[in-house]
Amino acid sequence: MPHIKLSTDFPGIRSLMIFRPQTSTPLNMLAQILLFDENSLSRGERELIATYVSHLNGCVYCESTHGAIAKHHLGNNAELVKNVISDPEHADVSDKLKALLQIAGKVQQGGKKVTSIEIENAKANGATDIEIHDTVLIAAAFCMYNRYVDGLGTLIPDDPAVYDKIGKQRSAEGYMTAPVKLK
Q1: What is the CATH number of the domain that holds 139?
Q2: What is the pLDDT of residues 104-125, one digit of tens each?
Q3: Pairing with 16, which of 43, 91, 125, 147 sits 20 to 30 Å away (CA)?
Q4: How far apart are CA 47 and CA 122, in angstroms?
Q5: Please, are residues 13 and 149 in contact by the beta-carbon 8 Å criterion?
Q6: In a domain? residue 106
Q7: How far apart are CA 154 and CA 146, in angstroms?
Q8: Among the residues of the chain, which ranges form H helices?
Q9: 54 near 138, Cβ under 8 Å?
Q10: Domain count, the chain
């Protein structure tokens, strides 16, 4: 049950974006830059980072939504998304992404948990400074997004088809278009 009066036509962060459109534009712009705009990390890799951090934070809505977006970016590979969430060290992703996921996991625990060990490991596996920067910012941003969604008690759908619909839209359009009403 939401803690404030939110639209029941939109779940999770979508209802918060409708409720307070003045904050939705900058929040969506940040997501657009970090997750959708061109980058040396693929859209799927960046969405996996967001999904992993959301999983660590226990944010079902964001984990499910960004997992669905990642799945669509990765050729509908739901198994890979599941494997990254449950065991990133053994998932079928590059060593560079594994190292970046380690950094993201440390950021989720607290920014000061990231040490030169994780940074050097990422660099040794081919990560650039911008990729390390963006990983830290994605992880930090998703700690904020997750707390925003859960802190206001937004509606969390049980139906995987809802997340798939969101994933299909966001993977195709990015984050700057209006959400499609799901009801």
Answers
A1: 1.20.1290.10
A2: 999 999 999 999 999 999 999 9
A3: 43
A4: 18
A5: yes
A6: yes
A7: 11
A8: 12-19, 21-31, 43-56, 60-73, 78-86, 95-109, 116-124, 129-151, 160-173
A9: no
A10: 1
Nearest to 70 by CA among 86, 47, 95: 47
Which residues are CB-contacts of 108 (< 8 A; sequence separation ≥ 6)?
53, 56, 57, 139, 142, 143
Mean per-residue pLDDT, 150-154: 98
What amino acid occupies position 70? Answer: A
Residue 153 main-chain phi, psi, to 5 deg: 60, 40
Query: Is there a contact between 92 and 83 (Cβ–Cβ < 8 Å)?
Result: yes
Identify whether 179 is part of a domain.
no
Q: Is 71 exposed, middle or buried (0-12, 13-18, 19+ CB in 10 A)?
A: buried
122 domain-assigned: yes
Question: At 85, which amino acid appears?
Answer: I
Place of tokens 């625990």: 109
Q: Alpha-carbon distance 33 to 166, whole Å?
A: 18
Note the pLDDT tens digit of each residue in 10-69.
999 999 999 999 999 999 999 999 999 999 999 999 999 999 999 999 999 999 999 999
Is residue 183, in this structure, part of any structural domain at all? no
Whole-structure pTM value = 0.97
Residue listed under structure tokens 């000061």: 112
Please tell me whether residue 175 adopts helix, strand or coil conformation: coil
